[in-house]
Amino acid sequence: MESTSSPPSSMLKSRVSVWAPINSSGNHHPFLVFFFFIFFLITNISTTTCTPQISYAQHCDSVVPESAPIEQLLDSAAHGAEFLHIGNGYFTGGELILGETPKFDDDSSSLAMFRHGALYRTHTEGVIKVQGNLYFRGPRVITPLGNITHRRLLRFRINQPRFPIRRSSATFELYGFWSSDSGKLCMVGSGWSHPKQGNSRLFNVVFKLNFANKSSIIHSLVRGTLESVDTEDSFNYFKPVSILGISQNGYEYTLIDREIESGFFSEYSSDEDASLGLDVGDRLSLCSFGRPAGEFELEYASDCDTVNCNPLGRTPGFLPKFMSFSQIECQYGGKVHMILRFSNSSSNLFQTFIPDATLVAEGAWNKKKNQLYVVACRILNVANSLADAFVGDCSIKLNLRFPATISIKNRSTIVGQIWSNRTVNDSGYFSRIVFQDTGNVPFNLPGLKYDYTETDKVSKACAKKKGVKHRGKVYPDGHSLDMRFDMSVKDSKGQVGWGHALPIFVGDKFVDAPLHGKFRTGSPRLGGFQAQVSTSHNSLVNVSYKLSFTSSPSFKLVGKSSPFGSVEISAEGIYDKETGILCMVGCWHLQSNKPSTKNESLDCEILVNAQFAPLNAGGHRVKGTIESTREKSDKLYFQRLELSSSSIYLSQAAESIWRMDLEITLVLISNTFACVFVGLQLFHVKRHPDVLPLISVVMLIVLTLGHMIPLLLNFEALFVANRNRQNFFLGSGGWLEVNEVIVRVVTMVAFLLQFRLLQLSWSSRSNDGSEKGLWASEKKVLYSSLTLYIGGALIAWFVYHSKSSYQIPSPRTRFAPVNYNQQHSLWGGLKSYAGLILDGFLLPQIIFNLFFNPEEKALASPFYIGTTIVRLLPHAYDLYRAHSSTWKFDLSYIYANHRMDLYSTAWDVIIPCGGVLFAVLVYLQQRFGGRCILPKRFRESSVYEKVPVVTNDQL
Predict the structure, then answer these.
(1) Using an 8 Å Cβ cutoff, are 430 and 342 in contact?
(2) Residue 624, Cβ neighbours under 10 Å: how many?
């Protein structure tokens, strides 16, 4: 009997989704968000009304017969996270849907994804009603930053553009039924495509998928098709799209135990003592190390021109450089299944699923040998048809171990090898490949040790580097986190590279400390190193470092420009905490554009010297050199590189955080007193309304703008948390942001009060009988003030231009950090000059008194004296801060901000003296007359008749 049931109304809507990278560092405009919300709401409403119903029975009844659902929602967790899930699928076809041909390569990848939604029981045993979404993503073109191929180099995160190139995409909302007996899923529905060019289109589809209830290494592929329900002559008809994915649902291990028993892994097995063991009783113990390991770098052991080295079975010309573990699932007893991805770019290892660049694998931990044994299989017959693809050729073996000891030449904490048990003449044979982790994620494995192998060379090279002990100077302890630092490296031509130096081991202690972000001293899983103060009487301590820097292509290295723009040096040596001298020998790999081989050059004739500054000193924290100990005639010789660091010590960071808390409090107090003083002036003019016309409007405008402009520049702080502020750099959390919002609120109150005073003064002149005389004097004040202000601005511009013409611009690269101690820009200078104008806010009132010569007390003493003190105290505080703090970081200045006023030792004396002088002049003018400060012959003036002011209350 044919079913006539129709899909639920909730399934008739087409889901419109836009997939685009979001720049988290930018502020999202609320009006823009509101616009997009309205747009998508209208789009969804329109699609709801035009989407036709699609009969399940007509298109899917022959696959999985329709069954009436029981009104009981199934718990999807009972079926596992991988149930009916394709996370990173491969597909062919879909040109009409996406508007372009999908691409799967290292530079631009497409994607197919399916996730189920609600699950319902049905009256038919083993049949489940499924709701879900199928998503397709088209390729995009990305301007590459270049492959980073050096070992263990820290990756730099580059912000995406605010308006990135849009990918084409399509999203389908489906419903249907899955049979646990046959493993088949059939769904119908519709969805919209969003090509990069052209209009969106609606497609009605049927989706078929073979998804078994259980999987194994051989039966791990999921195959499906997306077909159009329209006729071939229809405008929205498209050819079937084939989909291929990996299933790990209900996984069963079928090969690894048999391969271990056959002895295939004993050929390249290492000694038990050479590797660290793992507690595999917890199924997550192995995954805790495998998942964050990231990518592995491949090293080819033989001449790949004559012997096949490709583990993927491709043409001999292609040799991948990187490998990664993906979709790792661990079981109790040390068993694990996963997929291995190979690529020539480390940035695409976790994004792209390419069947002929992927191996399906399962493994088990060997407690006796302390190694992970893995058997892997290729995905074959992909080129012909995805429907015919299968997993086979399981002749690939892999072992992985955690070395018990690392050294300057072997820094990897995870190493392994891949080989084939076929013979040389077999088609699937490839030569043994060694791999190691790139070191971007440091592992503190229990029992890991460091072998200082270059102690003799260090003793000879550093014998002459003994510094002079200075009484009263304290240098960083070798075991403290102050030993890691950012650095800039300059070559002989002035080209600059930017990077960092991280201690790996200090003595026999592993250092697990991040370079950026909040400081941490340990990791619950990896066993962090606690920063401590050495109690040893010996000032010398052995250290091991990793130095990495990235430079511009013109950076000179080894007699020519650096081919990769990135360099990493492994170094070890000694550090003297009594003199702050760090002396090390180092090694770096000289790689070519070809894949790594064992015969690649390793240059260990490098000497690194660094002098740490005392903990209480300012300026550069570290200065040093990187130089070659080879003869100048040697082809590997390079000229000396200068390194320096302006990063701060932990004690300075703590001091800065404490100071920032203090300064935000001072700003809050200062703005509060500004409100109080304006309030007292309002109370004064209320008691004496006749003095309102005698207040200089220019002065009130200056004060009002002084409160309004900071509000406009920082208005988003009231509503949007700005995550790129210095409080996160220094690890102070979000408390500063809360205080900043409070400061903005108080500043707004001060602005409103000041604006009210301006309004009263302006309106009072309309009611004053001497209106013409008042405005005539005010115009003279305006012209005189503008002349002085513009003249001062021109002088400031001339000084700025003169200094800029004699200053050599420092070289920058795209990876260069922002130097906040660099010379201010012209705009910054103008902002500082505006602060100077605000400091002299009484100048217009003084000039007004000279022209109009009033005898009344227009300004309340608490107002002009108190406001003067509020404006001058930051300069006094800046003098204190300059003499008490050993480190300067302008970005962290909140009170007495150098970007908002003129601050220096000279200005901090001149400006307070000028402010006090102005306050004294106003006092004298209000006591003895506006022209009392002039010689007697200039004091004559016309006398204006006073007309009483009629207030609103009297009316």
Answers:
(1) no
(2) 23
